[in-house]
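Sharing in case it's useful to others searching the archive later.

Someone asked me privately for the predicted structure of Trk K+ transport system NAD-binding subunit, so I'm posting the question and my answer publicly. Question first, with the sequence:
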Amino acid sequence: MPFRFVDRLKYMIERQFVKGALFQLMVVALVIGLISLVGGLLVLPTAGTFADLGDAIWWAFLRLTDPGYLGDDEGSWRRFVSTLLTVSGYVVFMGTLVAILTRSLFALMTDLERGLTPVTMRHHVVVLGWTSRTLPLVRELMAASGRVRRFLERHDVRRMRLVILSESVSAAQSLELRNDRQIGRRSRHIVLRSGSALQPEALHRVAALQAAAIIVPRTYHGPDSRIGADVETVKALMSMASQAGATGRSLPYVVAELEDNRRQPVAERAYPGPLEVIAGDAVMARMMVQTLLHPGLSSVLNELLTDRGQHDLFIRSGENLAGTPFGDLLGRWSTARALGVLRPQGEGWLPLLCPSPEERIQRNDRLVMLARDYDDTAEMRDVARTAADLAAGSDSARVVPEVTRHRVLVLGWNRRLACLLSEMGQYPSHQFTVDVASVLDERERDEELARYGGCPESVTLNQRFADVVVPVDLQGLHPEHYDSVLMLSSDRLASGEEADARTMMAYLQLEEILGNGPDRPQVVMELSDPDNESLLLTDHSETLVSPMIVSHILAQVALRRELRVVLDELFTAGGAEIMLRGVDVLDLPDAPTFATVCDCFQGRGEIALGILWADARRGLTMNPPASMVLTLAPGDRVVVLAHPG
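And my answer, the predicted structure tokens:
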């Protein structure tokens, strides 16, 4: 079928219009010229003052562009043509021209809002990805803390400048940053840019090679995606390494989160620059297992590893303390506690947490401190212990052996369960029997576990098919017969809000089954959305919000690199651990001071960090003043740093 002339004309006009505003204006100018030519030809034969065709065309152009000339015309034909030209002018000249300019300006503003312009910053912090970890990360980085101030001083910048790379930038993201109570007005120092970490041009857009630090949080694509989160992370690392090699620039410091800690050698091979890897799933698995071993520990973890806590871990030079036994440092700070030292080892650091009191500080060692702020670690004081303090420390009782068998009911399924079982297998003195209840097909569960290496031989695993939000199924599991109930947030739903809604529904039904009996099991609940934690106002469960904890670790390691080895040592089997000791294991005087409690535990080779009160209204008192008088009651427990066994 042959092409019609009209189709050819329409196609030609379309091809010009899609080329942009300049070509659109050229087409409009051509149409205006044609209308002026036709109008001039129509009025040229009439008697008048037109010397030639050019004068007639100019007359038509003036009527086309300015309706004020309409009243100057005489004669019916000339007025008729003038009216047609004026109406055409409204449609073509004014309407089309304004539409093209408005649309062009709107498109320009839209492109600018999409964040496609490369930033021209140096020594800023880049976050690659907008995920559930982004807001907690931003809160940590934009906080006016001493650690942030020292980070800025090291890079000689006045304020923290943050660039976030998101798949698509929208006004909703900017509004979310501005409306956050902890970010608020500081959001004006945050720049959003569109793009994927898989795209080299997007990395150039955020000036990745000029950054002081780059944080790569994991992006979860769903259980059916063929692009794993670690694949995207490693590809981003390779792109940055390639760009640095092509431009001759040095590689920036990167903190990357991986889903599978077995891929850490792959990430290090892909990125030869300064790199710290945080295995998010392994970190959460370690904390869940330690919470199962030490009920109540979640309060301490939330205090130390979320932005809602008031205490942090700090690293301080120990040069001026060289030769001092570590035991002499305990109690030397009124508002801080020494936890151990970092000793140089090759290109890294060897963490020595809760070392022997006779361990002497070396010149290049760094102290690991617990405090509210870095400034609290500076002031030292002379310690004058009383005879009662020393006596209490020497007569302290031995540690009561802990139960080594644990029967755990896991409600739900997510990718962290394989890490959880693997972590349980790292504690040879504890034997776990784990029953997993989920609606996921048992064969699919076994396949996921097999990909991670299977279940350790020291852990007994039983698979149960049950829908935990169905009361009959949940009651049929008999949760009251277990030592602990662990509720996992599903990663197979569309969002963290949906996963948390399901988890909280199951929790409320679990509470109906357990009641308020004295022998109720420990309940540990994992949430995916930080905003949902406040919805469950109860002292019957322990809550861990995964994005908040992992975000805190990513941010703190980005600001202080040495913290990564400290956290690995603190939350890995075999190293020093944070534990809870009952006050009944100590021979304490009435109304002791916290200094007395510290002396008691120092005699046992442990470091006291705070008090977890049995009264839920008092909660946790971390790092109290040494002179604080404690009114201890049965059920109160002391938070200590100690070696297991």
